[in-house]
Amino acid sequence: MSGVGLALALSLGLRSRRQEGVEAADFRAVAARVRAAGTSFYQGMRILPPPRRAAMYAIYAFCREVDDIADEADTLERKRQGLTRWRERVGAFYRGEGDDPVTRILAWASRTYELRAADFLAIIDGMEMDAEGPIIAPPLATLLLYCDRVAGAVGRLAVRVFGDASASADRVAAALGEALQLTNILRDLAEDAARGRLYLPAEWLAAEGVPADPAAALTAPGLPRVTRRMAERAAERFAEAERWMAVCDRRAMRPARLMGATYHALLERLLQQGFADPARPVRLPAWQKFHIVLRHGLF
User: Fold this and answer.
1) Burial zone of 183 (CB within 10 Å; 0-12 exposed, 13-18 middle, 19+ buried)
2) Could you give the angle at which helices 286-293 and 254-273 cross, rounded to 10 degrees?
3) CA 289, 268, 250: angle at the middle one, nearest 5?
4) Is residue 119 pLDDT above 90, yes or no?
5) 284 has a pLDDT exceeding 70
6) Cα 94 to Cα 55: distance, rounded to the nearest angstrom
7) Which of the two residues, 32 and 82, has the higher pLDDT score?
8) Higher-confidence position of 11 and 151
9) pLDDT grade, residue 49 (50/70/90)?
10) How many angstroms separate the Cα of 232 from the Cα of each of 135, 183, 271, 277, 282?
11) Which of 75, 121, 220, 254 shows the greatest Cβ crowding within 10 Å of its Cβ?
């Protein structure tokens, strides 16, 4: 989100000292973390009412904290300790015991929107997969499990905050989460390779003669065929998410539609550019983002 867009989102935030159980000071602290992250993920959150927006900001802040633990330059033991501490904090905020703005809002949000502890714990499990060592060409089943933990579980929390706790909404979360994560993987191939990571399935690499080595894979002749196969799977999952959205609460699905439309447009740009040069950055221009927001977010 641009600085102007985020400023607008924050200007619509909690103005009173307390609204529906969320302290304004806690909201401001968590919103500041989102702003400092400079993320575009919350482009869709501007259309949420303030209490739901506060819950989503806190979920995002939780994800950033556990992700930072997995990515930090530290020993595996210390990373495991940090993630174990967060598992304990999840248990605590489900008992109503928040110890900072993030966990206090999550304690409230978990009661208000019937969020499941299993989804928070799944996110931590996904971060532990990264913490255990660089993920390099995992089996497809492992990659899909990773996607479900780091993206699908976030989606299952989000759809409840958006206002739909149905089984169909969970299916939206599963399909859309995988589609978003696969798109991220395709966008970040070179960046991940520089960190010694390769989030492409071993079976697909072997089938195209691509080495299961992050640096070598980037220049392998068969890489575009692997990445196109992943793009096709992502497109299928975007389409599946759309089908399930059609049977969900329409208003509750507005943020999911906005995120889906944004990432689907990014996937189409990746396909248009091709994957012969993974280091070439691919981004949506501001005009296209604005058009998507107008079409899916405001009307």
Assistant:
1) buried
2) 150
3) 60
4) yes
5) no
6) 14
7) 82
8) 151
9) confident
10) 22, 10, 9, 19, 18
11) 254
- Cα separation, 9 vs 53, in Å, equals 9
Q: Write down the mean pLDDT value for the chain.
A: 86
What CATH number matches the domain at 134-283, 1.10.600.10, 3.40.50.2300, 1.10.260.40, 3.50.7.10?
A: 1.10.600.10
Hey, what are 255's tokens?
Answer: 């943020």
46-70 as b/e: b if 16+ CB within 10 A: bbbebbbbbbbbbbbbbbbbbbebb
Residues of the chain with CATH 1.10.600.10: 1-117, 134-283
Q: Other C-beta atoms within 10 Å of 76: how many?
A: 11
> How does pLDDT run across 140-163, given as a tens digit for each residue?
999 999 999 999 999 999 999 999
Token look-up 């530290």 returns 74
Question: Can you spell out the DSSP letters for 131-182?
Answer: HTS--BS--HHHHHHHHIIIIIHHHHHHHHHHT--SHHHHHHHHHHHHHHHH
* 155-183 mean pLDDT: 97
Average pLDDT over residues 44-65: 87
Distance CA 280, CA 22 (A): 43
Q: Within 13 Å of residue 173, how many CA atoms lie on the same side as its CB?
A: 25
Distances (CA, A) of 215 to 136, 191, 196: 11, 10, 8
The CATH code of the domain at 1-117 is 1.10.600.10
Q: Distance between CA atoms of 291 and 276, rounded to whole angstroms?
A: 29
